[in-house]
Automatic annotation (TrEMBL):
Cofactor(s) named in the record: pyridoxal 5'-phosphate
Domain of life according to the entry: Bacteria
UniProt cross-references to SUPFAM superfamilies, sorted A to Z: PLP-binding barrel (SSF51419)
Species assigned in the record: Planobacterium oryzisoli
Listed GO CC annotations: cytosol
Domain Alanine racemase N-terminal: 7-225
Name the UniProt record assigns to this protein: Alanine racemase
Keyword Nucleotide-binding: no
InterPro entries per the UniProt record, alphabetical: Ala_racemase (IPR000821), Ala_racemase_N (IPR001608), PLP-binding_barrel (IPR029066)
Alphabetic keyword roster: Isomerase, Pyridoxal phosphate
GO molecular function: alanine racemase activity; pyridoxal phosphate binding
Amino acid sequence: MAHITLHTSRLEHNYRFLSGLFSRHAIEWAMVVKMLCGHTEFLKEVLSLGPNDVCDSRLSNLKKIKKIDPSRQTVYIKPPAKRLAKSIVSFADVSFNTEIETLKLLSLEAGRQNKVHKVILMLELGELREGIMGAEFMDFFQNVRNLKHISIIGIGANLNCFNGILPDQDKMRQLMAYREAIRKQFAVDLPYISGGSSVTIPLLFTGAMPPAINHFRVGETLFFGTDVYHQTMLEGMVSDVFVLTGEIIELNEKPMVPTGTAGVNLVGDTVEYDQSLKGRTSTRAILDIGLLDIDFAAIRPREKGIEILGGSSDMLILDLGDNGKEWKVGDTMEFSLNYLSTLRAMNSEYIDKKIQR
């Protein structure tokens, strides 16, 4: 059975790198673990690194984190659904919010549970995903600041996740300006400006990050070493924290061009073929990984000279050329992953999960 492996030494390397970077800039940071899809053994590994705050967008995953370590501060990082108020207060110590009526329900529920629920108010800075519009923000703050069982601990923003809008110094200064306006109008000094995420990290290296931005939420760069801003690797980090492995279940020399009348394939495409390859053959391998488990376009063979041709719901087809390495049935092949392909593999019950220390 195909499997995905978490390499803990590589993960620890990236964690120490980021911890050192943020410490030098007096920034607190939270680990975003939603791509682990609540896998208990993987969660135990990341929690053992010692993050103070752990973020997820699924309540079931936060519940598992609390079961592993009730003392760990959990953060729900999307606006809560009103129907989930009870569970949000039960399993999330902090939540990101944009709706007054939801905050009122959270306050009532926190009172029932004898808690004070902490919140970060999310501002719209142009990405057009979640966020309170700037023109409405001060009135919004006025309406929620005195909710009895709510503690507003900061403001934040999301960028680059929907329309791909990149962070810059101006957008970070907008967050600073809203906190300063709150301080002047309401005499409230919010402790956190949560303006940072993986895509914002490069601003630290260029000096474009204002020092008042003191909280980051990081997932992709932690697990992949990615400079999300430039779509490159950050120097000093490693990429293959996760590796996908599949087994060869068939190996044959086959024609490079199919024969017969071509119709629409499984995914609705009409495939065109290079007719100049007609009459030529190559070694083709079939692996036990399918579209149900992974996006073929988002994985990369770690061995050179292998081409991914495509596949079906539960098989991956590769071109091995002349098979100079002499692959055989039963051999396994490894693939590098990106963020979304890892998320998809983690969410598949047909992909085994393994740990390599």
